[in-house]
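Need residues for this backbone.
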């Protein structure tokens, strides 16, 4: 029996973002900020839901795909560029402001004046992922409201594993935020964004597993086969993914004629693969004499029954490393205080 491929639009990027936490308990706010995962989030804390609601509803900082696309916030894609170039997504690595995006809103249900449910019903952000928490709200009632679309996730405060469950919910929420942005821009993305690999749920899971295993905190898709990844210090890595048929085409390029025989044999048997990509010149391939320094061991990857080869190589996507604005410098920057 043939298995159906589970399709889920792979977000064009993922990186640390800002989570807004609203709760009238000062103790909860500060314990959450200390205990929650800070490798992928910075936090804005508030005990005043009315003021934070006004702030969030007036917030217009979002940028996406290396370009300001505020039109998407209002469903107005007509003013956006006719076609957003996927290869330029990575341009955000030069801007610390990418970490300021209010991607998650975490709000407590039981607050005087404006409770969490009222807050959610009045929040106007189209893309922010909203998590409701409560120590008193029955799950059945919370899920009833969630099914009506008032918020995205509900996490009960009870239990010793509350912080762990909240961390998991926030990780899902961050990915959901970038997926929503990608879906909003999908109609005006370049055709490269619509390849089969980039609509496989299993490939999205693979990307995030690479981030976890190699302690990376950002990725930016340059095309269906090349993904720029950064660690917190801003060191760039390239994740390259190809089918064996696509790897075979590399050896048919004119540049392959000057490749050393030993490397050509490793490439033809898929023990190694060429890993280099210039997002400013996506069709560029280096001379064959330079291939040895761009060749890396090709690892096996099976997605939805299809075999791929992949490699993660430092510096294999050509960017201006001196200009990269890393997450490690964000918290002390003026952008973090805006």
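Answer:
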């Amino acid at each position: 029996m043939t298995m159906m491929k589970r399709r889920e639009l792979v977000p064009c990027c993922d990186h640390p973002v800002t989570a807004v936490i609203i709760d009238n308990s000062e103790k909860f706010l500060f314990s959450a900020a200390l205990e929650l995962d800070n490798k992928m989030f910075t936090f804005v804390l508030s005990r005043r839901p009315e003021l934070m609601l006004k702030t969030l509803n007036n917030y217009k900082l979002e940028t996406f795909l290396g370009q300001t696309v505020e039109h998407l916030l209002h469903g107005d894609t007509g003013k956006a560029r006719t076609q957003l170039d996927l290869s330029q997504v990575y341009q955000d690595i030069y801007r610390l402001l990418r970490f300021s995006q209010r991607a998650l809103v975490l709000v407590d249900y039981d607050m005087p004046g404006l409770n969490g449910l009222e807050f959610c019903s009045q929040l106007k952000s189209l893309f922010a992922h909203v998590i409701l928490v409560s120590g008193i709200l029955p799950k059945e009632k919370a899920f009833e409201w969630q099914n009506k679309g008032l918020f995205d996730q509900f996490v009960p405060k009870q239990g010793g594993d509350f912080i762990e469950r909240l961390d998991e919910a926030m990780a899902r929420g961050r990915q959901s935020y970038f997926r929503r942005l990608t879906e909003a821009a999908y109609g005006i993305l370049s055709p490269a964004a619509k390849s089969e690999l980039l609509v496989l749920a299993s490939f999205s899971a693979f990307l995030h597993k690479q981030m976890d295993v190699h302690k990376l905190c950002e990725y930016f898709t340059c095309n269906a086969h090349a993904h720029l990844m950064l660690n917190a210090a801003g060191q760039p890595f390239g994740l390259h993914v190809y089918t064996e048929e696509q790897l075979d085409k590399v050896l048919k390029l004119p540049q392959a004629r000057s490749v050393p025989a030993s490397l050509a044999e490793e490439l033809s048997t898929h023990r190694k693969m060429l890993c280099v990509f210039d997002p400013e010149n996506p069709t560029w391939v280096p001379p064959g004499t330079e291939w040895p320094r761009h060749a890396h061991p090709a690892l096996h990857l099976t997605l939805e029954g299809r075999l791929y080869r992949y490699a993660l190589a430092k510096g294999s996507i050509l960017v201006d490393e001196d200009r990269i604005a890393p997450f490690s410098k964000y918290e002390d920057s003026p952008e973090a205080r805006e």
